[in-house]
Amino acid sequence: MTFADVVVAGLHLLFAAVWAGSVVFMTVAVLPAARDGVLDSEPLARLTTQFKRIARAGAIVTLLTGGHQAATGYMETLFSSTRGHLVLGMVVLWLALAALSEIGAARLTDGTDQQKVRTPAADARPFFLAASVVAVALFVDAGALAAPW
């Protein structure tokens, strides 16, 4: 493994962890507080803006670094091996996480633009719950991929 491969793998894991962590944080900390009326629309809007930045950066960096890793290690066996299937599963989960993150954040933004908090948090909750499940599934997939076969 070259130094560049190590850097790419490190960036991939770092951005994936921060993105997944921010999804789970929004789900278990921010949304319940918003649904209970503890947060006003301005703090929720700021948290949502930061979340969107993290999610978009995570999506872009993991796409690029994951593409590099797949191209240098799995392309010839992508459709014919267990490890290749794990990589394909990761791509599907990545797409789901990106979509769910964007939809959930959009639901929050739509409400905070109208100075609302409780309803947007309730509307966004199913998307963030699903995104949290997908984020965990991504790490399980990554663990299986990292395991010696």
TrEMBL record:
Pfam families the UniProt entry points to: CopD
Highest rank taxon of the organism: Archaea
Gene Ontology cellular component list: membrane
Location of the Copper resistance protein D domain: 46-145
Keyword match Transmembrane helix: yes
Cited InterPro entries: Cu-R_CopD_dom (IPR008457)
Transmembrane segments: 6-33, 86-106, 127-147
Keywords, in A-Z order: Membrane, Transmembrane, Transmembrane helix
Protein name: Copper resistance protein D domain-containing protein
